[in-house]
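User: Structure with zinc ion, tokens only please.
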Amino acid sequence: MKLRRLLIISTLFCSFILLPGFISNTLSQNFTVVIDPGHGGHDPGAVGKISKEKDINLNVSLKLGRLIKQHAPSVQVIYTRQTDIFVPLMKRAEIANKAKADLFISIHTNSVSGSKTVKGASTWTLGLAKSQANLDVAKKENSVILYEDDYKTRYAGFDPNSSESYIIFEFIQDKNMAQSVEFASMVQNEFKNHCNRIDKGVHQAGFLVLKETAMPSILVELGFISTLEEERYLNTSTGQENMAYGIYNAFKKYKNSHELKTTKNKEKTITANSTPNTMKEEPFKKTNTPNVDDNNVLSPQPKIVEESTPQTTTKKVKTPIVESEDEIIFKIQIMTSSEQLKTTDTRFKGLKNIEHYFENGLYKYTFGASSNYNEIRRLRKEIAPKFQDAFIIAFRNGEKTNINEAIKEFLKRRNR
Ligand SMILES: [Zn+2]
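Assistant:
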């Protein structure tokens, strides 16, 4: 009896000792920011007249990290590199994912061929490029993977210089997009209003490094190394500090507005077997997440979006795709109906060879069928005036399958 009482008392005592510790630990959970100085080592990034991009990026990154540590000591600052070393693109995202970071800031310096006068800072988030110029920025930054020996397998046949490779970004559903855009806008505001930089705006494009991160993420282009005046500025400590301050001020604002939400972000699912870059994605679905276009005007997401499929997918290119002889067929879904329609129904607007499949109690009508994804894309564009909401779906051996995986496999097979 005595022993039992003792046990109860000691259990209670321990609970009181441990409880406050547990609470304070939960409340003081740190905000983690990953700072990613672009390029490094044998990858110089863009090269100017007097400097290399990798050095500007590193200097500004280190200054930014110091500012955060100095003014917000509770924030955990992690760098993807702190010296002049080469870090593969995938590894950079992996560092952030492993740390379950709350924010990812990739720092770069822009360059453009054919102009020695273009100036200005811009901030980028993951998305579909809306212009050739935007696509070119992503191509340039993504081509760093060519410095990696095994990039063909590691990035599943992604060719950073081929525009066609970028179709995978058409189907990305980035649940962090709104926050990324919010932070990007804050950074851009600072650049414009407090750093006195020419405002090149917030844009979206298919950056591989942003695709792999599982938290709100941005990529900053500090200025143009190809314009001597701006290159000089970015090589002065005043210039570097100014840019670092701009990002720091935006960081502070962003963090303050998200302070209470950070614990939620800690609970991210990582697949059991996996490397950190196989974060589970939500099934693809329609989204109203804002999209920032070239004119900095909020506009809805591209109209063609994929509907939910029951199966989850990984958005990671690294995942090895098993060689198979599965037959993959792409089709365009044009409408759904709770009752079966005649192929002559006027709602098909005269389209011939309409097919259907049955899913979740609905008849789903499709047009076109091809193993060539590009052909189906062309067809979709053709019928877009009549069927604005049409979207592409995929079937593997006759079973509906995840469109993103199907596209990846299509690209892979094509590159074989
Ligand atoms: Zn770069």
